[in-house]
Amino acid sequence: xxxxxxxxxxxxxxxxxxxxxxxxxxxxxxxxxxxxxxxxxxxxxxxxxxxxxxxxxxxxxxxxxxxxxxxxxxxxxxxxxxxxxxxxxxxxxxxxxxxxxxxxxxxxxxxxxxxxxxxxxxxxxxxxxxxxxxxxxxxxxxxxxxxxxxxxxxxxxxxxxxxxxxxxxxxxxxxxxxxxxxxxxxxxxxxxxxxxxxxxxxxxxxxxxxxxxxxxxxxxxxxxxxxxxxxxxxxxxxxxxxxxxxxxxxxxxxxxxxxxxxxxxxxxxxxxxxxxxxxxxxxxxxxxxxxxxxxxxxxxxxxxxxxxxxxxxxxxxxxxxxxxxxxxxxxxxxxxxxxxxxxxxxxxxxxxxxxxxxxxxxxxxxxxxxxxxxxxxxxxxxxxxxxxxxxxxxxxxxxxxxxxxxxxxxxxxxxxxxxxxxxxxxxxxxxxxxxxxxxxxxxxxxxxxxxxxxxxxxxxxxxxxxxxxxxxxxxxxxxxxxxxxxxxxxxxxx
Length: 494
Ligand code: BES
Ligand code: ZN
Ligand code: ZN
Fold this sequence. Notes:
Blueprint lengths: L1 E6 L9 E6 L6 H9 L3 H7 L10 E5 L8 E6 L7 H17 L4 E5 L9 H16 L17 E6 L4 H25 L7 H15 L2 E5 L1 H7 L2 H7 L7 E8 L8 E11 L19 H16 L4 E11 L11 E3 L5 E3 L7 H14 L4 E6 L3 H7 L4 E5 L2 H14 L3 E3 L17 E2 L7 H13 L4 E5 L5 E2 L9 E2 L4 H12 L2
Parallel strand pairs: 1-6, 2-4, 2-5, 5-6, 9-10, 9-13, 12-16, 13-17, 14-15
Antiparallel strand pairs: 3-4, 7-8, 8-10, 11-12, 14-17, 18-19
């Protein structure tokens, strides 16, 4: 898909679909002008309340040869100016309609944008909305697939600047990284094994010149990664600790680690999950997918920061060789863990993954995991939960999240919670005993992080959606890819 930023005089260009927004209190200058050419019918619809202007109400109008654009798509924007996330929604709705009517070319001209939207974020948001809204997982149906025909998208604005062009580049990288993550997550467990996840990482490394390191079982034994090895021991699929290294600022000793939970299928192990909805657990490598998607964006944009991506990949299976409740494990670094539930496997593999990130010299760690069902209860599918041992670190991350429009909310780490993961026979247990399941899971990981500034993101609720949203189809959302990429960019500018 090719994006162009053009000044709004191009509304008169011949395109298959011209997309305009209008408010409940008026059509705006451009749409009024177009309406004038079409004889005033749109103004009538607005006056009669057929076009009420309600947010994301939409109407497709054929111009029947009366106007250069073949069809107009009018999208309501309520009574407020559009903010960046509204632009993503408008673009997402628009591209879905463009696909439905099989438009080859589309132009988007939003009306009245909020003053918080910079030139850069204007084009970035529209590009993201288009690419993310157009996404569909290819799947495996043998029936003939409908191919997409949309080739060009023109963004019409007051007057194009370099910043607009830059926003297109950023938006394309962020969105392509996000759809890479979606593809990895939507791929079923029999096809997205730890080995295949390592292959996906290899492809990213080759595309962008990253160093790739994949630890095998024997390497994990050498490093004493007893927690990851225990989770993996019930599966015939070989576990992989996958590492990508990007050196964007060789002068600096800072190393930012993006660490992802990569459970390619979570049955729960011996503490087996119920059958209902278990198929969704192919998405339990959502943290890994977010990390790899972010690295794709980083590879495109090359921010001046050093990043190591660490993905702990394995299946969690029940079998004669599986680890069991009651087992005691020794993680990298020597801490001992009492296993009370084999379904709380994410924190175990992350214990070794953050251990390895530290071994690689990480000075700042962000881990991402589809970690707990409890976070789905707490925040639903809207907001990602964050925990930290450094409020200053988290505040810079929240700033990045604000810019991408991805919602993140902090959970507390009060000392009083820590007693709930104390074990009678080991340094820590993998099951919290006092409620607050997401907090105790995060605090478990903190035990292995130590003093290194750290942010934990529980994306169990946000990584997967059961309904189609404006720019997120149901299934994998690719959440946090854009924020991780944005954070890398901001870190490079410090
Ligand atoms: N992968 C799950 C968490 C999950 C739940 C992800 C729902 C996505 C949607 C995780 O490994 C798990 O099973 N957690 C248990 C922990 C419990 C046994 C302490 C949970 O949340 O029930
Ligand atoms: Zn589990
Ligand atoms: Zn899991």
